Each structure stands twice: as C-alpha cells, then as structure tokens.
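Repro:
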Amino acid sequence: MANMTTSDIARRLVQPGKGIMAADRPSPAFKELLAAGGSTVDEHSYRNWSQLLFRAPGLNDYISGIIMTDEQVRLRDEAGNSLLEQVIADGIIPGISPFTGMVKLAGSADETVGSGLDGLRERLAEYAGMGVGFTKWRAAFQIGAGTPSDYAIAANAYVMAQVAALSQEAGLVPIVEPEVMLWGEHTIETCFEITERVLARTFEALYLHRVELEGILVKASMVLSGNECPVQADVDTVAKQTVKVFRRQIPSAVPGIVFLSGGQSDCHATARLNAMNAQYDLPWALSFSYARALQRLPMALWSNQAENVPAAQAALQHRAKMNALAAVGLWTDALEDAAA
C-alpha cells in the first residue's frame, strides 16, 4: 500500500460494485465446521480451502479486499508460492484480523471483550511490511435480559478504538466491527435501540482516540428481528430501520459501511443490501463484508475434494457477483433464478 493514505485505501475498498470477503475463520474453527458438514479433514484442508477462495477465477471483478488470518498471510501452496502475494498480484487488498478471540469481561457474568492487544503495534508494523492494507476487529453484543450492558458496550468500544488508532499509526485502514447479534427473540425495535447505543459509544471512543474517520470503515450488522422472534421484519423495513440508525450515528466523513451477514441466509443478505442501495441516497458507500453468505454453498460443494474445486469456485463467483450488484442497487431475484 505504498504511497496510499488510509483514506485512499478505504475508498478503494468500497469502490462501486465491489465488496470484501471475510475469510478469517481460524483453522481450528474451520476444520470443526468442515467436519460437521460430513467432510473429511486433513492437515492440508485449511490451505486447500484458502487457495480455493483466493484463486477463484474472476474474483477480483467483484471483491476489493479479503480479510485473512495470521496463518493465511503466511501460507504457501504446494509449489512454495505465497497466497498473500497472489492476492496482491490480483489487485485485491489483503486485510488481517489480529483479534485472537473473545474473553470473559471481568465483572460480568456472561459478556465478552476481544483479546489480542498484546504486542499489537509490532504485529501491525510487520503486517504493513508484508503488503497488508487494513485490519478488522470484532466486538459481539448479544441482546438478552439486561444485555448488552453499558459496561460491555463501553469496554468493547474502547478496545476497538485502541486498535483503530494503532492501525492508522501503521498506515492500515481499521475496519471497526461492533456486531449486534441476530440470535434471540428480540423485536426489530429492540435491535434498533441496541444498535444505536452501540454505535454512539463506538464513535465516542473513536473521537477520544483521535481516529481519522476518513480512513476507517465500519463493519455493521443490519437492524433485524431476532432469529426466534415470531414477527420477522420484511426487506423494506430492515432497509428503512438500518439506514435510519446509521444516519443518526455514523458521520458522513466515514467513506463506507460494509455489512456482516451474521447468520442471515445468502439471499436475505443480498436482498436487504440491495434494498438500501436502491431506495436511499446515502452519504457513505454501503457494501458487503460477508463470510458465510459468500462461502456457505462453495464449502458444501467442495467437501474437501479436489475435483469439486471448479464448481465451488463458480458458486463463490456467483454469490460475489450478486452481492456486488446489490452494492449498487442492481440485484434482482431474476438473476438468482437465471443462475439456478
């Protein structure tokens, strides 16, 4: 990312018609998921899956950045070629998730905070030297009886802001991810209220840490009914409530907001993103940073079998294309039907 400011990198990541692929599932969690789907798991499974994703033909037509793990940025293929260098050569910006997991928040019964701050300044300098262009740090907020607490929101906002400040110091764009989780019986109105609280405290912390808003992105959850709520909001209501809370709490100086899929179905994630871009004139780019909503079908088709790689890559390319169209408000159901 030589000679590019964090503002330059952020704008490139949310250029029209492209989004970010989140591929930062750690190897142990990936292998557990693969095995749960009935596939065999071996010592090369993680490398082979990473190769499938990063080398999918035409991926750079729709994907501007890929979020990777520390292991992935160091992976090499059978011939000794760096996967990271291949991503860079394809014109895709590599990102890193320096987050090492969730730990119990002291003084709280069941709330968490992200870990991985130890040695972060040095690690970020190393990643920048390798050609990485951005970071992503996640906080997770579960809606329940009395949760998330103001304490948990403030603690996580402070950590996200620390990481953002250190990232910009290293010349990296921080993607700040305050996820309000889908799981539960809560209504869309409750989700709106919690999302507003979380975003307000997050930006308060970013200001206190002197983070340059022009050089960040926000990875956000949509405002949704809980997955167990008996009344599920329709696509237009989700779009309306999500845009409303963003207009209240996310300054227009931020170049873009990229959504996490967070347990939504593939087509719901696409349709809701499309509705926002088709129906509203917005001060920020709205795009995607999906993991499951891009990779669910490709992983099922692949099943850790080399002969299935072309079909899995074709499915990945299709989902990336559908979401790229949604990022400019041009997706329709008919495009899904035509590909079926």
